[in-house]
Amino acid sequence: MIRVEIRGENIEVTDAIRSFIEDKVNKLDRYFNDQQDVFAHANIKTYHNKMGKVEITVPMKGLTLRAEERHDDLYTAVDAVVEKLERQIRKHKTKINRKFREKDASHVDLFQVLSEQPEESKDDDDIKIVKSKEFTLKPMDAEEAILQMDMLGHDFFVFNDRYREATSIVYKRKDGKYGLIETN
């Protein structure tokens, strides 16, 4: 059984909401081995225009599943997020099984094998690298990196943070503001 932690912003998490989210998320339990302790973090938020956002994250060793959906109906948003998570699980399961089938038939899969559902193996789901670049990271601060990113017209920019002496990434958020990812 997946343990679900639910947090609400600008909304009271009622027993009905909690039960609905837990029931929907626990439908994903069939994809995980019995030995795994699986936790899910659900964040629900409502805005002034009554639009709601549901975000569910399932952190695991070596993989983090995450999906979010905005909708004016909270229950519809939960359904959509769980469908997205299920697609991610199936896609990852297919990719891992294909990879290990090529290397070794006696692998230990991250997910249970579902005999009642055939594996999806669409060619358009394969990850293909179509271009590769190599460049030297220049030491700079985050503001300079944002200026470089904007000048290049990119959505993100990787740089060496001159103050932390570590690799960092700046990126443009959907709301038009900027984010910073710092590495250790």
Task: Write the topology of this structure.
Elements: E1 3-9, H1 15-26, E2 39-46, E3 52-60, E4 63-71, H2 74-103, E5 139-140, H3 142-152, E6 156-161, E7 166-172, E8 178-182
Parallel strand pairs: 1-2, 5-6
Antiparallel strand pairs: 2-3, 3-4, 6-7, 7-8
Helix pairs in contact: 1-2
Helix content: 25-40%
Rg over CA atoms? 20 Å
The number of helical elements comes to 3
Oligomer: single chain
Assign the CATH superfamily of the largest domain: Ribosome hibernation promotion factor-like
Q: What structural class do the secondary elements suggest?
A: alpha/beta
Strand percentage lies at 25-35%
CATH topology of the largest domain: Double Stranded RNA Binding Domain
Number of strands: 8
Main CATH class of the largest domain: Alpha Beta
**What is the helix/strand order?**
EHEEEHEHEEE
GO molecular function: ribosomal small subunit binding
Family: Belongs to the HPF/YfiA ribosome-associated protein family. Long HPF subfamily.
Coiled coil: 75-102
Subcellular location: Cytoplasm
Q: Keyphrases for this structure?
A:
184 residues; alpha/beta; Double Stranded RNA Binding Domain; 2 domains; four-stranded mixed β-sheet; 3 helices; ribosomal small subunit binding; RHF/RaiA; cytoplasm
